[in-house]
Every structure is written in structure tokens, then in C-alpha cells.
Amino acid sequence: MTMNYINNASLLKRQLVVRFARLMFAGELKNKIDLLPLHQAPRNSEAVRCCVHHDRAVIRYRLIALLGFAIENEKPDDEARTLSSYVEEAEARGLERMAGSALTVIDEACSACIRANYRVTNACRGCVARPCMMNCPKNCISFENGQAHIDEKACISCGICAKVCPYHSIVFQPIPCEQACPVNAIVQDKNGKQDIIAEKCINCGKCLQACPFGAIMERSEIYEILRAITNPAEATVALIAPSIVGQFNTSLGKLVTALRKLGFDHVVEVAWGADLAAQKETAELIERLEHGQTCMTSSCCPAYVDAVNKHISNIKPLVSDTLSPMQYAGEWAGQQWPGARRVFVGPCIAKRAEAKASPHIENTLTYEELGSVFIAAGVDVAECEESRADLEATSVGRKFAVSGGVSTAIKNAASAAGHNVTDKVIDGLDAKSLAMLKAIEKVVKPGTFVEVMSCEGGCINGPGVISNPTVARRFLEKMLQEHP
Amino acid sequence: MAKKFKITICSGTTCYVLGGAHLMMLAEALPADLKDQVEIIDSNCIKACQYENALPPFVQINDYLMAQASVAKVVEYLRKH
After folding, report:
1. Cis peptide preceding B56, ω within 30 of 0
2. Is residue B29 within 8 angstroms of chain A, CB to CB?
3. Fold category of B5-80 in CATH
């Protein structure tokens, strides 16, 4: 399970976003962005990689991704470009530069994990039986200095050697990003560095969470968002996802005030859109079942919808046509405040791709980014007054943040309308659950609503969260008890 | 009876975002023999981040202010004292 354990790579990234946002708030990004790699990795500091220069090179690429660019598009001479020239380009080109996948790989940070998944450890005793060598189908094990040695180029990672070793001295060592990717969209190039195949990628963000080197970055929209909220002439709306409860160890009301302090003019609970989506989806389900369809799946998780489109298109007719809560809330905000920039604030990277294709949302920001922006602006959320969002939701929509929330809402609404519906929750996408989804009509009994969440545990375990999902769930449950 | 350790976890936004969120798991992570000796307080900003070059997240254990705190570091400290 990909879980949000505390991890130095993500903390360093948050620190960098704080520095970036401070410069933006001071109006000095273009003048001073080239100093940020030096400030984040000062000359006499202890390097994380081989030396501070390598650290700085990686930080430079992180800043390029923070400005929204795909690092894959870098031309050879661009290595000599200043970061301020990237700021100028971001300023001039707008969101047009964001075309393509929402994720990007920093080759400079990718450690080019060893292709062969099996390694011989020092526990090897160089025995006489040598079952590893005798049973290797590729003949790629030899003995050097009394220990087995695997030829990485010839090894096909079948695992037989590890299975037959009497001393358990051969270990399985995965390539974390590849192992985490549910759709084989990240592969090694000829230099061993990872590439994301945009046609396959569903932007779920699992590779980003899994990479121990922090080599995978989301292409951020923070530049556009900070520019808009610091511009008094531009109206902005923060559309906060249901999973925001529990991300800042404080109440929703204080968070609403904190967002207004940052410069957002309006705050809308996306859970309101979830309330609406639950109603529409229930009506759609009942109608479809009456027309003889066996089952219908949810459509709120964009990584899942993308997985259907790109990998299991045979079940496309089973996916609900109901829009996601984000889109309903965005549509409402567009009618309420025409022309305002609508910023979805959530845990999700796939939402960025969904928003790009939607007329109802302009930008997306993750909780991690929001947290760093609060620090840069000197806004302490817990010390804010309580205030109310411009549009509030009920507990039905607020439960969409955790696995089972969507299906519970729909089962209850269907039952209130006199229909008995069975529910099934697919909690987390991986190769196995995708195979099951492919044949879902044969798996579930007729009359089933299938909820699919790409992240195990639901949105509270998304790639852009701050809180440990256990803590976030505790908060959400507490809030639902207080505001049933 | 007063507990041996009074642990104040700073939940100011700076600490919380820069690693403090995981300190919310401290109560669950405490070994059984230490549980009875510890009182955990979840506090608003304790203002430790306002010094130059401050290293959040912060935890106050009795009189000792721990910078760059983690669950593992807190447990180790409790064991030694």
C-alpha cells in the first residue's frame, strides 16, 4: 500500500514551495528565483546527493516543474538557461505550457534503479549445491570471490534463484515507481532513467509517492494561482475538496478564514457538488438498472475514469455519466461569480488533468502546496477566526473523502427511493483490481453500484495530502459527529 | 498524579505542514511501558518557529524543546530520560 509515511523527499519539496511562494508574495520571483537553489542547498551544508552542486541542479529542475514546465521538453542548451527566463516564459505563455501529462520526471534526480529485481546479498555462502546457478533459465549467475553474482543485463527477474537459495540470500528489490504504477506507464529508457508514457499515464500520482529520490514531480499551477490571489483586480474562488477536513489539524471554519486571508475572494465546499452528484448518480443508477444494465460504476475519481478510457475501455458503458463533485461546484461558482478564477484545492494530481478538460475549473492546488503557501504568507490556520464558506455541504457529500462514502450515499438514496441496491467498493487501483474491473459485470451480482477509488482509503490518502490518512479519517469522523 | 512527561506538540501551520502532521500518531506509537508516564497536549503555535534558522516541527518535552521532531526521536528521548 502506498501510504504517506513521513519522508524527507516530500518535506524538502514543501520547504522549496515555501521559498518560492515567499518570493511571489514579495513580488520578487523573477529577480531572485535563481538564488533559491543556493538558499535551499547552501555551500557548507551537508549534501543529500553526492555534493551540493548536484542537489542544486535537482532543485533547479524542481523549480522548473513548480513553474509548470515539463522537464522532458528541455533542450540541450536549456541547461544554461536562467530560472528567471522560465518565469518570463510562464508569464507570457500562460497555461498553454501545461500541455501533456501532469507529471514529469527529473532525470537528474532519478537514481536509475537497477533493472534486475533480484540481488545477491552478503548472506550468500557460495555453497556447493549452487541451486541459483543450476536453475537460472538465462544462465546469468556466475560465482566470483566465493559468492553468486547476477548479470543484470541478462537477468529477466523471474525470481527462481531467490526461491531456491537455501540461505535466503537473494532478495527481491523492486523499482519503486514501476511497482507502484497500476498501468505500466513508467518505464526505463536506455540509460536506466524512467520515462512516463503520456498515452498510458492516468496521473494517479502513485509513482510520485513511491520514488525515494523524489524524482517525479507534478507540474504545478502555483505560479498562476499565487499571481491571481495577490492581484486585487482578479476575482478568485477556492473550491475545497471534502478531504480537506483533517489536513490542518483544525476546523473547517478556520480554514475558510485562512483561505480568505491568503487572498481568495470566495470559498466553496466541493462536498456541495458531492451532495448533488450523489442525487444525480442515484437517479442515473436506478434508470440504468431498470433498463437492464447489471451494474454501474462511480465517476468521481479522475484517475479511475482515465484508466477506463486508456486501459479497460470495454467497461466504458458502465461508468456513470454524472459529472464529478468538483465540476458541479465549479459550474455553480461560474454562475455565481462570472469570470472569477476557480481553483480546486485537493489531494489529487489526476484532478489537474480533469480540470484541464473541463470548462468549470481553471486551476488546481494540492494541500501540500496550500500548506506551504500558508507558511509563506504567515497565516496560521489554527489561530484564524471561524467563518462560513459561501457554499456549504451536508455530511453526505463530506463523506466522499473516504472510501465507501460515495457508495453509502448512493445506497441510502436509492433505498429512500424504494430501490434495493448492492454496493461494492474497489479500494485502490492496481493491476489486480483493474483486471477485476475489466470483468466487473461477471464479478458482481445484478443491481450493484461499484465505487472505485484510485487511492487506497480514498481521497484522504491522495498524493497531495499533508496528514497521515489515519489522522485525517479521525478528524473527519469527529466533524461528522459534531455536524451530522 | 502528575505524569512524568508533559509533551506539547506544536500544531501551528508551519510545524504541521513541515513534518508535524505525523506527530499526531505519537499516542498510538508510544510503547506500552511509556504510555502511563506521558501526557500529550496538542497545542496551537508555540512560537518556536519564529527564531532565525528554526527547524520545525517542534515538540516541547517538559523543559526541553526538540527541533525537527519525529515520533521516533520523541520515543528515543523518553527512553533516555
Report:
1. no
2. no
3. Glutaredoxin (3.40.30)
